[in-house]
Amino acid sequence: MIEGKLIILAGGISSRMKKPAELKENVENRLIEDANQKSKSMIGVGQNYRPFLDYLLYNARESGYKDILIIIGEKDDSIRKYYGEKDSGNEFYGLNISYAIQKIPRGKEKPIGTADALFQGLLAKSEWSGKRFTVCNSDNLYSQNALTLMLKEEYKNAMIDYDRDSLEFELDRISKFAVTFKDEENYLLDILEKPTENEIEKSRSKDGIIGVSMNIFSLQYNMVFPFLEKVPYHPVRKEKELPIAVKMLANEFPKSVFAYPLAEHVPDLTVKNDILIVKKYLENHFSNFKL
Question: What is the pTM of this model?
């Protein structure tokens, strides 16, 4: 089995999670404290108060990944305190964990997006030049199936294209997810963030499926690096976004990003009302969980 390389994006400031919320159910005080003080992925939603990130790392290890680079923020040391203080070479249940810090540019109050996070991560891992890696969010629990697909070497670059109807979220939330446009061979043409209803319908395939991106990609270091460097700021959010860089890559090199169709749910830990939903999901699907 290929020993894969995985980059996990955890350098954001979790602003939506830290917002005050009118909770639908009672949540333990320590979990609320986690949500207010730590990276989202370090909220102890698992059994025996395990952080959410443990479950993503478990799925990664079981899928064949060995080298893990976690992009962390300047102002949050919760991940480093848990997984090891060294910049690299932290052993964690068979995984080799290292870190890169997503620095906040001078004059900015927060990190400037996922494309910048990956750019800074690749700068810290120049020895990965010429190689392929998977990159994903830290606040989504991607399945072993999805992570394994990203290890396949049939295509230069790839992504998971989720069937929107398989995602177990409220429609209002799902309607904001980025939709994908592919050619007849399922190569990526476009990723459209915050689509209108008309754009969503235009993205529907001949089979009636609306594909959405959940920000998991397999990328060639040397192919994506130039686009991470020159991706523009989003005009509204003022961030450099990874999906835009991937779209630029796909447009510059047609048939270079394959979209794997997949119909399954992806647990998401974005706001405080997600905490108990994710906690119950883990209880139901990882009852015998062991790292």
Answer: 0.96
